[in-house]
Amino acid sequence: MNLLKNLFSPLYTDPNMVNAGEMNGSGNLMDFLDEPFPDVGTYEDFHTIDWLREKSRDTDRHRKITSKSKESIWEFIKSLLDAWSGWVVMLLIGLLAGTLAGVIDLAVDWMTDLKEGVCLSAFWYSHEQCCWTSNETTFDDRDKCPQWQKWSELLVNQSEGASAYILNYFLYILWALCFAFLAVSLVRVFAPYACGSGIPEIKTILSGFIIRGYLGKWTLLIKTVTLVLVVSSGLSLGKEGPLVHVACCCGNFFSSLFSKYSKNEGKRREVLSAAAAAGVSVAFGAPIGGVLFSLEEVSYYFPLKTLWRSFFAALVAAFTLRSINPFGNSRLVLFYVEYHTPWYMAELFPFILLGVFGGLWGTLFIRCNIAWCRRRKTTRLGKYPVLEVIVITAITAIIAYPNPYTRRSTSELISELFNDCGALESSQLCDYINDPNMTRPVDDIPDRPAGPGVYTAMWQLALALVFKIVITIFTFGMKIPSGLFIPSMAVGAMAGRMVGIGVEQLAYHHHDWIIFRNWCRPGADCVTPGLYAMVGAAACLGGVTRMTVSLVVIMFELTGGLEYIVPLMAAAVTSKWVADAFGKEGIYEAHIHLNGYPFLDVKDEFTHRTLATDVMRPRRGEAPLSVLTQDSMTVEDVETLIKETDYNGFPVVVSKDSERLIGFAQRRELILAIKNARQRQDGVVSNSIVYFTEDPPELPPNSPHPLKLRRILNLSPFTVTDHTPMETVVDIFRKLGLRQCLVTRKALWQDSKKRAINFE
Question: Taking every annotated instance into account, which residue ranges of this chain make up the domain CBS (predicted)?
Answer without folding.
Answer: 616-680
